[in-house]
Design goal:
globular; 5-stranded antiparallel beta sheet; Immunoglobulin-like; mainly beta; 2 helices
Length: 488
């Protein structure tokens, strides 16, 4: 399928402006729980907007993160929130600190938090000069120290740093999306807590371009993704790099097995990695995959867009040994989804997000020490005018089953208008989505087993009333729905 609405894209932010009216209409209180989900905080401009980066649990038990925009200067914030919803702004970023924080924070054994900004601006006399991002340290009390800034040209260190990872050897490791050499393909770097910096590897197009966030494997090596390449391949790759800089390209995606691998790999057991691609796969909506240590990739699940699509943030391992993730879009409304998948590939949509939850998540969730799943959304969030949310979700508890089905008519009005829906020769479609249901069966004008979410497109050749019935089951529950289409 083609993704339904260009505004539903993690690579762009146009949907933020287009949904302001709905956000202003919301009036439910923050921290109201429904179906196991609790909005801990809904963001407004003053305390930040669009929390795009991952959150982490700090040594004090609080959850820490960053926002892309908002705050005192409009350039983003660092924040802390408790499991009970007590919220604190740690720092409002000025342009000279760096801006548009989209990578989140990382904990380190010294008790501090480390993060990056992809760009920033300094004023020299009467001129404003941009720089290529920064890495910083921030205490749990909010004291910020900029460890290093990078040139806007990306040479020689690279520019546009992403998320950092604790290498377990006293150093932090990260990637630069661009720069490093004349190829401008990005780098992997090594950073000491005192700001000492070194480039481990500068990519060339024959290896790939735009490296993403890293994870540390049980073998002590680092694993990351490349958005593009090698060379002209648009689908990306996965690489392994040692702490001394020896690089191996493990797998190159071809579109059929996924496209655009995201950061956020999970290793279980040792030598077996699970991850996601943002797009591609058998239905175009992204994939969940398993990779062995030699780079062999198996597609476990392909999203079709109506179950969910664009699982951009990566995965989290649950206490039950299953994997959990967030999708940017999902369901007939397209607001996003929380899903669970077993190591063998059985996927369950646990919740289709709504504006009351917050929508369009782009970062991986985490499990807190209390066994709840924590995550962020970039839109709405349960409060009037909110621009994203931090939430907790009881992913291990039974969740309510839901099933919905709608119809779309492709006439000059773009909608189904009584007293009839369409005419012979003019196409229409039926689309459905569900949560916490495992198997769907159709009857009436269609038949057979159906996926847990999908779309049927029809060009009618005869007039009449077409009745589409759908029954979905899961966990001992059966949900039914029906849509009728009148053709003249």
């Amino acid at each position: 399928m083609s993704i339904r609405d260009p505004s539903h894209s993690a690579s762009g932010r146009s949907s933020r402006l287009g949904r302001i009216c709905l956000a202003l209409a919301l009036s439910v209180p923050v921290a109201a729980a429904a179906g196991g989900l609790t909005v801990l905080h809904g963001f407004d401009f003053d305390d930040g907007q669009y929390p795009e980066g991952r959150i982490v649990q700090g040594p004090d038990g609080r959850y820490y993160g960053t926002t892309y925009a908002g705050g005192v200067y409009g350039y983003g914030t660092a924040f802390a929130v408790t499991s009970a919803g007590s919220f604190e702004i740690l720092h409002s970023f000025a342009a000279t600190d760096g801006q548009q924080l989209d990578a989140g924070l990382t904990t380190f054994p010294d008790g501090n938090l480390y993060g990056s900004t992809p760009q920033g601006t300094t004023q020299v006399g009467g001129s404003f000069i941009g720089f290529g991002g920064s890495v910083f340290r921030i205490t749990t009390a909010g004291a910020l120290s900029t460890l290093r800034t990078f040139t806007a040209t990306g040479r020689p260190d690279g520019d546009t740093p992403g998320s950092l990872v604790d290498g377990g050897d006293g150093y932090l490791y990260g990637t630069m999306a661009r720069g490093g050499n004349a190829s401008d393909a990005g780098t992997v770097f090594k950073l000491a807590p005192d700001g000492s910096f070194g480039t481990l590897h500068a990519f060339v197009p024959s290896e790939g371009q735009e490296p993403g966030g890293l994870m540390r494997g049980s073998d002590g090596n680092l694993y990351g993704s490349l958005r593009y390449g090698p060379t002209a391949n648009p689908h990306g790759a996965i690489f392994r790099i040692t702490p001394t800089g020896s690089l191996t390209i493990l797998h190159v995606f071809n579109g059929t097995d996924g496209s655009g691998p995201a950061s956020g790999f999970v290793e279980m057991p040792a030598g077996t990695f699970y991850g996601v691609t943002v797009s591609g796969g058998p239905y175009g909506g992204g994939t969940v995959f398993r990779m062995t240590a030699d780079g062999t990739v198996t597609t476990l699940y392909g999203f079709n867009g109506w179950d969910a699509y664009e699982p951009v943030g990566g995965l989290a391992r649950g206490p039950d040994g299953k994997l959990y993730g967030l999708a940017f879009g999902g369901g007939t409304s397209g607001y996003g989804a929380i899903f669970r998948i077993t190591p063998l590939g059985k996927l369950t949509v646990l919740r289709l997000l709504s504006p009351f939850d917050g929508t369009e998540p782009v970062a991986a969730p985490i499990f807190g020490s209390d066994g709840l799943l924590y995550g962020t959304t970039t839109q709405y969030g349960g409060a009037p005018g909110a621009s994203g949310s931090v939430f907790s979700f009881d992913a291990l508890a039974p969740q309510p089953a839901t099933l919905s089905m709608t119809k779309t008519c492709y006439n000059e009005f773009g909608e189904c208008i009584p007293p009839f829906d369409t005419i012979v020769g003019q196409p229409y479609s039926v689309q459905w989505s569900s949560a916490n249901l495992d198997a769907c069966f159709a009857s009436g004008a269609w038949s057979g087993r159906k996926p847990i979410g999908g779309q049927l497109k029809v060009t009618p050749t005869k007039r009449g009333l077409y009745v589409y019935r759908l029954a979905c089951t899961g966990g001992g529950v059966t949900k039914t729905t029906v849509v009728t289409v009148s053709v003249i």
